[in-house]
Amino acid sequence: MTYKSFIIIFVLIFSLGVFKFSFAQTLDTQANGTQATAQDTAAKDQTVNKDSPGSPSGNNQVVSRDAIGLRLVPNPEHLAPIEWYYKNIKVKGSPQSLLVDGYEAVRDGRTVYVSASKTVTVNRCSDNPSIICQNNTQCTSGSIEDTSLPKHFMATAWAAGQCVTSTIPELYTNIYVISYNQSPETSTTDIFGQLLQYWKFNIDVKNCSRTVTQTCVENVDCPKAENGPEVCGSTGYCNKTIESTCVIDSDCPQGEYCNSKKSTIIRDTKRLADLVNVKAKLESYNKIINRYPRLDTGTYLTNRTISTWPSWAATFSSTIGSAIPNDPVNKLGQCKLDSGDNARFDVTSCWDENAKEFSGTADPLTLPANSRAYYYQYKPVDNSYKFCAIFESGYVHGKAPLTPVCQTGRSCNVSCANKHCGDNGCGGSCGSCANGQICQNFQCRADGTIQN
Q1: Rounded CA separation 276/77 (Å)
Q2: CB-based contacts of 43-50 (< 8 A; 24+ apart in sequence)
Q3: Are strands 207-208 and 170-180 parallel, antiparallel or unpaired?
Q4: Where do the DSSP E strands lie in 322-373?
Q5: Does 2 have pLDDT greater than 70?
Q6: Residue 421 CB neighbour total at 10 angstroms
C-alpha cells in the first residue's frame, strides 16, 4: 500500500469525530506465522488534563485503549488469502471470505487478511530476466544458496549480465493484515467496518478515460479524440454498458467487468493466485495417480479443456476431485467467421459442433485473440501439462497485455531396465550403440543381424 493509502485510513478515523482511538501502523517484511493484532500497538488508558498540550477540549477525557493495527507482509508466492492464512497462521479459527476494494480477503474474528498488489519497478539481470537483482554482482557467478538477497526475492538461477531496471512496473503482491483488540467498544467495531468498506488500494494507478489500456499521470499523456482530449484518472468503463464509468468490477451491472487499469490489476492478482492453486492440485494428483489428469473423453478436444467449456467442471474438475477456478472474466475472444461472415461457432466455447472444429489453435492449444480464460493441455507422451491464464494488466513478468502466462509440469518414469539403448520413456535415451551397431528392441546389435 502507498503512503497515501495510510493517510486515507488515518483521516477516516478522525474525520468521524472519534478522537479517543489510536491508530497504529506496524510494517513487517517477513511473515512469522502469527497474527498482527491490535493489542500489539494499543495505547494504554490515560487521562488527558485540560492544561495538557494537545488536549482536544477543556474537560478531562479518558483515552480508550482500543486500537486498530495494520501490518504488511510480502506474499512472493502469490498465495490467495485463504491459502496464505492456512499456511502461516498457527492458531486457526473459522475464516470467512470477503472482498475489500475488489481484492480477495478472509476474515477470522477480529482480523482481516487482504491479498492486494502494488506496481513496483524492479531490477533484473540482462542475460536472464528471471533473476531479480540489486547490483551487477548478483548477475555474475554465484551460489543459489546465497543469502544476500531478501527472502522475498526468489532467484531461480544465476547468469552473467548486468543488473538493469525494468522498463515496465511489475505486480508485487502483499498480505495486508488489519485487526482490532479484544473486548472493543461498539464504536471501535463500527470504525473497523467502515475502514474495510472505504479502504482503497492502487490509488496512484491511472489510465486514460477511453484508451484505458494506456497509463497516464496527467491529461496531456492521453490521446486527443474528436470531442477533445481524454481525461487521466482512475475510472474506466463497463465492457457492455460503456456509458457507465467504473473503477472495479462491482461498479458494473452483474455479468459485466470494468476496463480500468486498476481492475485489470485486481483480476491479474487473482490469476496469479489461481495458477499457484491449480499447480498444487495438479502436482498432488500426479503424486497419487502417477500422471497428470488425462482427458480422454468428455471434452471437445482430447486432453484439452478451456474454462468456458462444459468439460472444465464436468470432466477436468471431476477428474481431479476438486473445483478448478474460472478466469475472473471467463470469455473467449471473437470466434472465426465463415466465408459469408456468418458465425458458425458457439460464442461461449468457439466450438463448431457440426464440423467438430475449434476456432483457435488445437495443438498447442491457443485461444482466439482477446480471450480472457484459463486453459489446460495434457500430453501423454511424456506426462506433461500446461495450464495457462491470460493476463491483462501488462504488469505480470513484464509481459504485454493479453499475454498467456503458464504453469507447466513434466513427470515421467525413466525405464531403462534391461535396455542398452533406445528411448527411456521420458524422451531421453538409455544409451547409444557403438559404430557398426544398431539399436533393435533396446539392444545393440551388429548391423545386419536380426533379432527375433
Answers
A1: 8
A2: 43/67
A3: unpaired
A4: 351-352, 357-358
A5: no
A6: 20
Q: Which of 66, 86, 75, 85 is nearest to 24 (CA)?
A: 66
Q: Which residues contact 188 (CB under 8 A, 6 or more apart)?
A: 21, 64, 66, 68, 180, 181
Amino acid at 379: K
100-114, 234-248, 339-353: which has the highest mean pLDDT?
Answer: 100-114
Measured distance CA(7)–CA(297) in Å, rounded: 56
Judge contact between 100 and 115, C-beta under 8 A: no
Of 39 and 277, more confident: 277
Polymer length in residues for the chain: 452
Q: Are 119 and 395 in contact (CB under 8 A)?
A: yes
Q: Which helix (H) or strand (E) segment is 262 a member of?
A: helix 261-289
**Residues 292 and 285: beta-carbon distance below 8 Å:** yes
Report the C-alpha gap between 160 and 162 in whole angstroms: 7
**Hey, what amino acid is at 177?**
V
On whether the CB atoms of residues 5 and 29 are closer than 8 A, the answer is no
Going by the DSSP 8-state scheme, the letter that residue 389 receives in this structure is E
Q: Within its chain, how far is the Cα of 451 from the centroid? A: 56
Q: Tell me the per-residue pLDDT of 98-121, one tens digit each, with 9 for 90 and over.
A: 999 999 999 999 999 999 999 988
Cell of 403: 499475454
Cell of 113: 487478511
| Grid coordinates of 126 | 540482462
Residue 403 in contact with residue 275, Cβ under 8 Å?
A: no
- For 6, the enclosing helix (H) or strand (E) is helix 3-15
Per-position b or e across 198-208, b if 16+ CB within 10 A of its CB: ebbbbeebbbb
Q: In the beta sheet, which residues pair with residue 391?
A: 403
Cα–Cα distance for residue pair 399/391, rounded to 1 Å: 8
Rounded to 5°, the CA angle 297-300-306 comes to 105
Which residues is 174 bridged to in the sheet?
Answer: 74, 116
The model carries a pTM of 0.76
In this predicted model, what pLDDT tens digit does every residue of 314-334 receive, in sequence order? 999 999 999 999 999 999 999
Alpha-carbon distances, residue 207 vs 212, 240, 341, 402 (angstroms): 5, 19, 35, 17
Residues 6+ away with beta carbon under 8 Å from 225: 210
Grid coordinates of 72? 504488511
Nearest residue to 115 via CA among 124, 128, 125, 102: 102
Q: What pairs with residue 246 in β-bridges?
A: 236
More confident residue, 245 or 50: 245
220 forms beta bridges with none
Gyration radius of the chain's alpha carbons: 28
Under 8 Å CB-to-CB from 287, ≥6 apart: which residues?
A: none
